[in-house]
Write a structure and sequence with these properties.
Elements lengths: L1 H13 L4 H7 L24 H14 L11 H4 L9 H8 L3 H8 L8 H11 L3 H12 L16 H8 L5 E4 L5 E4 L1 H6 L9 H7 L1 H6 L3 H18 L4 H13 L1 H8 L12 E4 L8 E11 L4 E11 L12 E2 L2
Antiparallel strand pairs: 1-2, 1-5, 2-6, 3-4, 4-5
Helix pairs in contact: 3-8, 5-6, 11-13, 11-14, 14-15
């Protein structure tokens, strides 16, 4: 009997542990879950494809919309229906396509859908920015052109605290170059900017800006190149169009830069420029460090960090910010 028990014990010890056992035994006593080389990763599920994702999302978004959401289309309420949400036929009518076409789209079938059609779907389904971009990516393989940003008159308290925490000059710009907020160090470095509300109009319209940047033309051209990218994204944005009108109408230099050897750029991020600070004995080499705050509105935080030349004393966090708008 003892021999039989020993044999059974030996067989149990020789049996490989299951994957569940391996994972459980890999939990550390400190609560962390290390990546275990002996645990094989699960393969991608066969049902998960971009086509199935698009179909699932479109159906979900359609089912949260009701005919009553479209008062300009009373005929939707007159149709016999068995559900309270939009049908494929309703969605097709609202988008101006045939039910077969829309059904093909909702099934995730690739069919070269036009941007105009996808934008109509965006409106019909009331998609937010994240949903719209996801739909475009799944349907076409590329992100959509950003929608024209609405005017922003204030920034969030969290962004304000982040701005105040910078020991070096920092400011927040929107997609049109508007200075939405800046800290006190920014005004201390660039006093002439304290009454300006747009970076591009300051660069091209304020003589003090030319005096402070040793390579003013390079900085100004980069600012204009950034606005050119934004114009390609949102050509109908009133705020951006007004900025370009002011800059191009008011500066012959801007008009030449716009027409001669045109450039496009995402901005001054990581470039080092020479800046003459007020009362400083020599120029300061300044690197511009940018970070995105809100991609929906093109909000970016720019911090000017001295990296060479005359090194000024930093301004420590805690000072109140100077609001720009």
């Amino acid at each position: 009997m003892a021999a039989a028990r020993n044999a059974a014990s030996n067989r149990r010890n020789a049996t490989p542990r299951s994957r569940r056992t391996v994972l459980t035994s890999g939990v550390r006593t400190d609560g962390a879950y290390p990546c275990l080389p002996e645990a094989e990763s699960d393969p991608d599920p066969g049902w998960l494809t971009t086509r199935s994702e698009l179909s699932t999302l479109l159906r979900t978004w359609r089912m949260r919309r009701a005919p009553a959401d479209f008062p300009d289309f009373p005929e939707l309420l007159q149709r016999p229906r068995r559900s309270s949400y939009l049908t494929v036929e309703d969605a097709a009518a609202l988008c101006g396509v045939s039910p077969a076409w829309y059904r093909s789209f909702e099934s995730g079938e690739p069919n070269g859908y036009s941007i105009a059609f996808l934008e109509r779907v965006t409106t019909m389904l009331a998609l937010d920015a994240a949903e719209r971009e996801t739909m475009f990516l799944l349907a076409t393989g590329h992100a959509p052109i950003p929608q024209a940003s609405a005017s922003i008159h204030h920034i969030s308290p969290g962004i304000r605290v982040t701005l105040d925490a910078q020991i070096w000059p920092a400011y927040v710009l929107d997609h049109a170059g508007a200075i939405l907020a800046r800290n006190h160090s920014s005004v201390a470095w660039f006093p002439s900017q304290s009454t300006e509300y747009n970076l591009a109009t300051w660069l091209f319209g304020n003589p003090a800006a030319r005096e402070q940047f040793a390579e003013w033309a390079v900085v100004a051209r980069s600012s204009l190149a950034h606005l050119r990218v934004q114009y390609a994204r949102t050509p109908q944005c009133p705020r951006l169009r007004e900025t370009l009108k002011v800059v191009l109408d008011g500066s012959s230099d801007a008009r030449v830069m716009w027409k001669v050897k045109p450039q496009v750029s995402f901005g001054e991020d990581r470039h080092v420029r020479r800046v003459q600070l007020p009362g400083a004995p020599a120029v300061t080499d300044v690197e511009t460090v940018a970070s995105t705050l809100d991609s929906r509105f093109g909000l970016r935080l720019f911090t000017l960090v001295p990296v060479g030349g005359h090194l000024p004393q930093p301004s420590w966090p805690g000072a109140a910010a100077n609001r720009a708008s």
